[in-house]
């Protein structure tokens, strides 16, 4: 009887486990279906928002707006069969050639379907010439496709950096990071314009993904694509090299822990072996673009194409202060969440306060506005720059806050490396320019946003709302008062 009771109990327990397992599988399937529907709903909603943004821009900005004029003039020139460089365009023409080829295809299709693709402007109708609205739309669709690819590949990137991260959580974090990234202030207003910046930042994001996934050939192809859009993206090779070094050390550290402890990794011979292995596997990914860039410099006689007077060389330390203020505004909730930690750090280590005050002194005393374009008042950036120049008290307070932003970025934990490397790259990228242009820092903002470690849920919700509100507000400023950030 006892044996029969045990068998009966085991059978009942097995039945309960089977029912429980079946319920868990059903719940997982329901969760997967719900997540899939929610994902597609978000994608459709974002697509609708971007189409509305395109409609608002096209309704308000009938003619090409500011730099759109040069970009669209290059596209028109290609469409007319002249494949030479426009004299006022300072970048390479991969973006323009791509849009021109697509527009030729759309125009051919439009002729078959009798669609009005030509633009009717006050100076007459351009026969057979697609309008700037079509160029904006195709540019936006290209960005959306590239951004969709980033979103699809980002979860596997996060899992490669953290093997303990479950796939559902990786997908959730990737969706949130991409959503915030697209809405970030100074990014969202450019999405519906004929500017190279939206394509640049998606290519930078894809380069980051391929670096982490160690797809070397694809990374090389994307590096050349980035150079074709904007030749000064060659400086990002320094960033990829630094992140690759972090990645290699991270993998070597994990291997040392699993084999014989971390002590062996600290030995100089072990480090030299790690660096030699890194050089063997990756040297050609950096060397080929560098050699190609040197050939380009020799052929072109400089880095800028066309009107080189718009990009004078020099060293301008004061630029750092302005760009740090932009970082603080773009990531305001994250910076505010870090202020209590900064206060504790300053109390525990007084030398941090000395460093903050010293950086404030450097930024405030080296600040200057010299480029002609920075005296035009149709951008928020120029108004802010000139206000700082005319109000010394405001300048010193702003630079003190910017020093706090720098302290946050230096200490910011990333999934790969830390913010100090990004701050160094920021200085190298913008101090060599006389022109202070906000969108020059979009690649680094993209890398930071996609690599940063998530904050507390409340801070992340605040960051999402802040990005959406500021992105929409700056777009409204573009279409209502024709100003850019």
Task: Report a brief summary of the structure.
This protein is mainly alpha-helical and 485 residues long. The chain has helices at residues 2-60, 68-79, 94-113, 132-161, 167-183, 197-213, 216-229, 236-259, 268-300, 319-330, 332-348, 350-366, 380-390, 392-411, 419-430, 442-451, 457-481; strands at residues 118-121, 124-130.
Please, could you describe this protein's structure?
The protein is an all-alpha fold. 72% of the residues lie in helices and 2% in strands. It has 17 helices and 2 strands. The protein has helices at residues 2-60, 68-79, 94-113, 132-161, 167-183, 197-213, 216-229, 236-259, 268-300, 319-330, 332-348, 350-366, 380-390, 392-411, 419-430, 442-451, 457-481, and strands at 118-121, 124-130. It has a two-stranded antiparallel ribbon. A hairpin with a 2-residue loop joins strand 1 and strand 2 (124-130). Helix 1 packs antiparallel against helix 4. It is globular. The protein starts with a helix and ends with a helix. The model is unreliable at 120-127 (pLDDT under 50).
């Amino acid at each position: 009887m006892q044996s029969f009771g045990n068998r009966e109990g085991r059978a009942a327990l097995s039945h309960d486990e089977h029912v429980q397992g079946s319920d868990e599988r059903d719940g997982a399937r329901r969760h997967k279906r719900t997540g899939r529907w929610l994902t597609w709903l978000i994608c459709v909603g974002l697509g609708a928002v971007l189409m509305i943004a395109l409609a608002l821009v096209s309704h308000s900005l009938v003619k090409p707006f500011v730099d759109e004029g040069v970009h669209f003039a290059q596209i028109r020139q290609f469409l007319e069969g002249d494949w030479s460089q426009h004299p006022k365009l300072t970048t390479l023409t991969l973006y323009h050639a791509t849009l021109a080829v697509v527009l030729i295809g759309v125009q051919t299709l439009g002729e078959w379907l009798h669609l009005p693709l030509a633009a009717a402007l006050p100076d007459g109708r351009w026969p057979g010439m697609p309008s700037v609205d079509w160029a904006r739309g195709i540019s936006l669709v290209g960005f959306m496709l590239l951004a969709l690819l980033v979103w699809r590949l980002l979860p596997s990137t996060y899992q490669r950096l953290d093997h303990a991260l479950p796939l559902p959580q990786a997908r959730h974090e990737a969706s949130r990071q991409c959503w915030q990234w697209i809405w970030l202030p100074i990014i969202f207003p450019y999405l519906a314009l004929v500017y190279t910046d939206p394509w640049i930042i998606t290519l930078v994001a894809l380069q980051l993904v391929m670096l982490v996934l160690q797809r070397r050939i694809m990374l090389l192809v994307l590096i050349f694509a980035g150079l074709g859009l904007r030749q000064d993206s060659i400086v990002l090779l320094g960033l990829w090299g630094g992140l690759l070094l972090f990645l290699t050390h991270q993998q070597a550290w994990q291997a040392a822990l699993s084999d014989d402890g971390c002590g062996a990794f600290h030995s100089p011979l072990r480090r030299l072996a790690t660096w030699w292995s890194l050089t063997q596997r990756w040297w050609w990914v950096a060397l080929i673009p560098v050699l190609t860039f040197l050939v380009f410099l020799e052929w072109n006689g400089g880095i800028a194409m066309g009107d080189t007077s718009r990009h004078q060389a020099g060293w301008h330390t004061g630029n750092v202060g302005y760009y740090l203020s932009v970082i603080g505004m773009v990531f305001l909730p994250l910076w505010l969440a870090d202020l209590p930690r900064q206060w504790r750090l300053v109390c525990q280590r007084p030398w941090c306060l000395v460093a903050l005050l010293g950086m404030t002194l450097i930024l405030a005393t080296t600040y200057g506005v010299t480029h002609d374009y920075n005296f035009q008042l149709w951008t928020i950036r120029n108004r802010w720059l000139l206000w700082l120049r005319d109000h010394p008290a405001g300048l010193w307070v702003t630079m003190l806050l910017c020093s706090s932003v720098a302290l946050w970025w230096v200490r910011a934990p990333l999934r790969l490396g830390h913010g100090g490397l990004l701050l160094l790259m920021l200085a190298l990228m913008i101090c060599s320019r006389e022109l202070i242009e906000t969108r020059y820092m979009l690649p680094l903002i993209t890398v930071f946003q996609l690599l940063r470690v998530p904050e507390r849920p409340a801070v992340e919700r605040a960051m999402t709302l802040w990005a959406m509100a500021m992105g929409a507000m700056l777009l409204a400023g573009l279409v209502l008062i024709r100003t850019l950030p």
